[in-house]
Amino acid sequence: MDVDSTLITGEVVEMLAARAGSEELVTEITERAMRGELDFAASLHERVATLAGLPVSVFEDVLAEVELSPGAVELIAELAVRDWPVGLVSGGFIEIVAPLAAQLGITLTRANRLEVLDGRLTGRVSGDVVDRAAKAVTLREYAARVGLPITRTVAIGDGANDIDMVTAAGFGIAYNAKPLLCAAADAVVRDRLDAVLALPVFTA
Length: 204
Known about the structure:
By secondary structure, this protein is an alpha/beta fold.
């Protein structure tokens, strides 16, 4: 499952940018990237550059502001009852994704890491960017790790960056999604995240 605008209601990079004074620019770039108008990796580097100088304490502040999407807690709880493994893969940042996942009892996580020097963000990403292709690769890695064939996986996302993952999965779901992803997905869900539980892949 994707994180920003899927598991949670907002985009973490925009929440960080609000503290760096670059929110308007970053929001515009994010929207264009999620519509598929910009290369995700290039757009991520451009947005992260505006965060240079922020103290690492900003992660704790932003984590406290993060809101889970309606129905997210209920969905994760039901999947836990069924013993269905859940993994998060995000074009956002592990500094937020990891503690969020821990709160929800999710152990499979992958996201970008922000470079830090002397307690402040440098404006760069550390390591390879988790982009559209990397999300699909991660889905396959998670499936192998839990011993499931890819045909029995479900992927949920909201933007163009999720297309490869959603189409690689056995069943792909677009949640409150951009048109490009809706066109590629097997199902489209609005409003509550736990509405996916009514889909045939969950009820069969």
